[in-house]
DNA sequence: CGATTTCTTGATTCTAATCAAAAACAGTGG
DNA sequence: CCACTGTTTTTGATTAGAATCAAGAAATCG
């Protein structure tokens, strides 16, 4: 198989290296998941809910999301994916997709067969631990989302979402582009698009943010965090790596 | 270590055997997670949020839940655990607990060190796959919960919750005991306890259920499913077991 | 049986949904 | 560069759903 993308360039390897130092062979295993990049237009669907699916995608560039559409046409967005993430990891072991995956911007995504992960499990217990960890962190995000939707009002939800995106984008600067229209944001937060507009205005009036044309500028991060009840530990609660620091014993 | 409980009796082994046939050695590995049963009173806490934790619990009998408490004292219940489940699986790799775990009834739970799971990963790739699968199914439940809370009104949420519990309890009969008061149910569904009461009345008035003293009787399951928009596939979407049917190649 | 918790019901308030229409903006082709 | 089109955002008016407050009824526990 020919590598279109050099391994050093791999988003997913970067992602993993943020967590732990990788061996040569581990880098190769991971980078193999990110060949064969395909382009998708903004709004294009990568997979349908309920459809048979034997593959995942790694996201190389752009933003994507997982969507669940209800019988009456309402939608709930469940994840926002950034480059380096794997789309659909939670569907390992399921033959049919639980959710729809859709590009939020023009993206490059690299399909690979689910089976490839099982192979990694067999070859590298260390990467197995890491994949387990990634799933665990995705669950942590889902949990935070449940709390957000279940127990916070619109202003708190939106504030929380903005802080979360800022943290995930790892921006030093307090300004970033959010490639989601207010209808999509509403579907993420469980509120109507009209109310998203009002809530943005409310946050502006409070002097917490400015937003214009999909650009978010945070004027008062502390204020946003206070309002939202953002749990600083939730993305920072860093793993207990002790058992991962030793090099892999088994082969590969 | 002395075995208080015979392996054949292990809840967690039963749970796994629902999914796939286990070898002798796999049964031993799993059953080892369920020795040393400890009793907890109804309402007792097994772990605090934010606390250092190097252990999981397997739940042997009774019901438990995971709770997130917010700064202002509001609570959101994130999971309801039934016998055979592992409490806190999602916190593998995190040194501190994300949520609080609390008994909903008097329970027996068996603590075991997180490390034990890593050992299982090293010894049995087949069980590794299964643990991944379990996490994946937990995520599927969290997703359904997000949709439930984000996009359904109180009647739909409660109806959905009742159907979900019925399915999870695997009851042929349409009557079961729900050991949660209406305040706890409200914290699960993201509505107030008062509104839970009204919503039960509403479902009774529609002739869908009867409920009294924590006992639920479903009078019209189809009606409940229709009202709630329950996705029949979501707990039924059964795994693609093909790659699990072959026996383990590696040792153990 | 009394004490405490849980459930029910009513009245009121608040938040957000819905409906509708205008304003702002982005993309297109001339 | 501008006029045209479609989309997105904003704003207002109204309605609906659920929270809150409060008090009485029912169930549970010791």
UniProtKB/TrEMBL annotation, chains A, B:
Short name of any one Pfam family annotated for the protein: cNMP_binding
Instruction: Please give an example of a GO cellular component term from this record.
Output: cytosol
Residue limits of the Cyclic nucleotide-binding domain?
38-88
Q: Where is the HTH crp-type domain?
A: 152-222
Q: Which SUPFAM superfamilies match?
A: cAMP-binding domain-like, Winged helix' DNA-binding domain
Q: Which UniProt keywords apply?
A: DNA-binding, Kinase, Transcription, Transcription regulation, Transferase
Per its record, what are the GO molecular function terms?
A: DNA binding; DNA-binding transcription factor activity; kinase activity
Q: InterPro entries under this entry?
A: cNMP-bd_dom (IPR000595), cNMP-bd_dom_sf (IPR018490), Env_Response_Regulators (IPR050397), HTH_CRP (IPR012318), RmlC-like_jellyroll (IPR014710), WH-like_DNA-bd_sf (IPR036388), WH_DNA-bd_sf (IPR036390)
PANTHER family for the chain: CRP FAMILY TRANSCRIPTIONAL REGULATORY PROTEIN (PTHR24567), DNA-BINDING TRANSCRIPTIONAL DUAL REGULATOR CRP (PTHR24567:SF68)
What this protein is called in its record is: cAMP-binding protein-regulatory subunit of cAMP-dependent protein kinase
